[in-house]
Amino acid sequence: MSFDPSSLVYNEAGLIPCIAQDANSHEVLMMAWMNADSISQTLETGRVTYWSRSRQSFWIKGESSGHVQELVDLRVDCDRDCLIALVNQTGPACHTNRRTCFYTAIRDGDEVELMKPEV
Amino acid sequence: MSFDPSSLVYNEAGLIPCIAQDANSHEVLMMAWMNADSISQTLETGRVTYWSRSRQSFWIKGESSGHVQELVDLRVDCDRDCLIALVNQTGPACHTNRRTCFYTAIRDGDEVELMKPEV
Fold first, then answer.
1. Which of A1, B10, B57, B101 qualifies as a FRET site for B38, CA 20 to 30 Å off?
2. CB atoms within 10 A of CB B106
3. What is the pLDDT of residues B22-56, one digit of tens each?
4. B43 touches A: beta carbon within 8 Å
5. What is the 3-state secondary structure of chain B?
6. B1 and A CB contact within 8 Å
7. In chain B, what residues touch A52 (CB-CB under 8 Å)?
8. What is the model's pTM?
């Protein structure tokens, strides 16, 4: 079946969440938002491109930092309202310079920092 | 630092996305939504509990199907607006009876079904 980005389910702002997962380690790196155009651009260029809600513009991941995400596989869920991008991640994915944005665990009622920023 | 669910960033409906990831295989199983109370309930009971947007009620995953998610670790991202629940998943996570909800890949402009429902 041919894929049409307009067949996905977007929220009221025209956005769909996309989970970036390292294609090799399978670590979940981050979650950000895409619109139909950024999905098309991601598929065409092979460079993962989100929609920045704060800047209201395309966000080619790593364009300024160099921490790019090369698309390996794009997946859609059963409800067609969430995506996974399997990626080859260059450098840390998180703006804090950590490998993943999910570096805080909740354990026994406390927040535990699982990793330090890379240097 | 002590964890307070009210310190997270919720959307206008009071919800935050939660990615369920298999703690052993690291496969991403599904994404659903939580509110502050379902986060507290998840941490207290060790049974992953979402907020059902369609039913507007707690959704104790697997309560009717038996396909429960035992919480192994809960993580929060840098922006505090997304969660990961690492889980021990009993049975398939997806309501279609597939292991994961993300069973469709977008490849060369086509949708490709990666797995069949379990029998």
1. B101
2. 19
3. 999 999 999 999 999 999 999 999 999 999 999 99
4. yes
5. CECCHHHCCCCCCCCEEEEEEECCCCCEEEEEEECHHHHHHHHHHCECEEEECCCCEEEECCCCCCCCEEEEEEEECCCCCCEEEEEEECCCCCCCCCCCCCCEEEECCEEEECCCCCC
6. yes
7. none
8. 0.97
